Each structure stands twice: as C-alpha cells, then as structure tokens.
Amino acid sequence: MSAACIFCKIIKGDIPSFKLFESDKVFAFLDIQPLSKGHALVIPKYHGAKLTDIPDDHLSELLPVAKKIAQAVGATDFNILQNNGRIAHQVVDHVHFHMIPKPNETEGLGIHWPTQETDMDKLKALFEEIKAKM
Length: 134
Fold this sequence. Notes:
Layout: H1 6-12, E1 19-22, E2 26-30, E3 40-44, H2 62-73, E4 78-81, E5 97-101, H3 120-133
Antiparallel strand pairs: 1-2, 2-3, 3-5, 4-5
GO molecular function: hydrolase activity; nucleotide binding
InterPro entries: HINT, Histidine_triad_CS, Histidine_triad_HIT, HIT-like, HIT-like_sf
GO biological process, one term: nucleotide metabolic process
C-alpha cells in the first residue's frame, strides 16, 4: 500500500466508496465520475502503478470480477479499459480496470482507433522478436 495513493486509501477505508466487491486481493467500486450508469473500477489491493508492476497472482481475479459486475449491471455492451502511463491516459498511479457499460452511441467510452498500413515483412520481424522474449 502507498500512503499517498487515493486507491490505497479507498481500500483501507480512509476514503469512502460504493464498494461492490472485496476479497483478499481485489477491491471493486463504482466510479464517482462515471462515463455511463454502472461504470465501475476493479483494482488489485497490491499497489503498483502499471500492470507490469503487479505480481501475476494478484491479477487472476480482476477480469472475473469485472465480468460479474458487467453481468450485475445488466450491460450487454461494455468496455474493459486499463491504461498504463500518462500518455496512455492513466491518471491514478494504481493499476485499475474500468468496466464501462455502453448502453448507446452517446454514453460510455468513445474510441478513436487510428489503424496503420502493415508491412508484412516488418510485422513478421516484430513477431519473431516478441515471440523470442515470451
């Protein structure tokens, strides 16, 4: 836990939240600045700024909890979002997954997806480089 982290303070109960779920490793609560009705955050209790900072055994419950919340909200269309770093739109330096219902075209998450043309030879070289490190 980090004494300065707002999410660690929520986990400890120092800051109130609308808690939806809690286990030994996971805490989930409603977002107080939602993009749509039912927008929730699912966070590991282990403090780490980026996904790569969190041990694997603290990640295993996160998506199942996000799934349960989506089902409880009744969301048929929704986004699961997790940002890492400022230029990737991360504001709070504690790993968190957003479960954002998308009930219509105007509510929920809006996404711009700027695809790029692919050079298959360069893509193959990148594939080989990444695969060798896996």
